[in-house]
Specification:
The chain contains one helix and 14 strands. By secondary structure, the protein is α+β, with helices and mostly antiparallel strands. It folds into three domains: 29 residues; 63 residues, SH3 type barrels (Roll); 57 residues, SH3 type barrels (Roll). The strands form four sheets. Strands 6-5-4-1-7 form a five-stranded antiparallel sheet, with no helix packed on it. It has a five-stranded antiparallel sheet with strand order 13-12-11-8-14, with no helix packed on it. Strands 2-3 form a two-stranded antiparallel sheet. A hairpin with an 8-residue loop joins strand 2 and strand 3. The radius of gyration is 23 Å and the shape is elongated. The N and C termini lie far apart (70 Å).
Length: 168
């Protein structure tokens, strides 16, 4: 009888030793732990938005705009529930999102200023829907780059940063 117990005990011991390795692999699939909601942007030219967090859910929307800012409003495993600038929500795979901060110009035409002041020189005229990269945000202004042109835009004239958010 002791001969048959040894393989069982040995198998149990191996299972106990290997289990943490498999658990560590699963930990990589957990959500990021970053704050939710937060802004991010689309990584690719073509990104599928799904009805739920998985490939078995139907594609509801296909984005064809690399760099489009999105707001991550929830995380589930390797999926992120995002909201686009128009308010549409759905699930996107984490590999299709980047932490690069982008913003989209809202409202009518806007002026990109040389300094964070309404009286500063105009560096560019921006149309609604123009997408630029945010480099920093102060209380009322964000510094952005649009097609290589750097300047400042009032925070209330863009979508991609929270009203009270300040960062370098």
């Amino acid at each position: 009888m002791t001969v048959t117990l040894r393989p069982i005990l040995l198998a149990g011991l191996i299972a106990l030793l290997v289990a943490p390795v498999f658990a560590a692999d699963r930990d990589e699939e957990k959500p990021t732990g970053l704050p939710v909601p937060r802004f991010a942007s689309l990584r690719s030219e073509e990104v599928n938005m799904r009805a739920g967090p998985g490939t078995r859910y139907p594609i509801e929307w296909v984005y064809n705009r690399k760099g489009l800012p999105v707001e991550i409003v929830a995380e589930f495993d390797i999926w992120r529930r995002v909201r686009d600038p128009e308010g549409t929500e759905g699930w996107v795979h984490k590999t299709e999102i980047t932490g690069k901060r982008m913003a989209i110009v809202t409202g009518g035409p806007r002026e990109l200023r040389e300094e964070p002041q309404d009286t500063a020189a105009i560096k560019a005229h921006l149309e609604a829907g123009a997408i630029g990269q945010i480099s920093s945000c102060q209380r009322d202004w964000c510094k952005l780059k649009f097609d290589g042109v750097k300047g400042y835009l009032r925070k209330n004239q863009l979508w991609g940063a929270y009203p009270a958010e300040v960062f370098e």
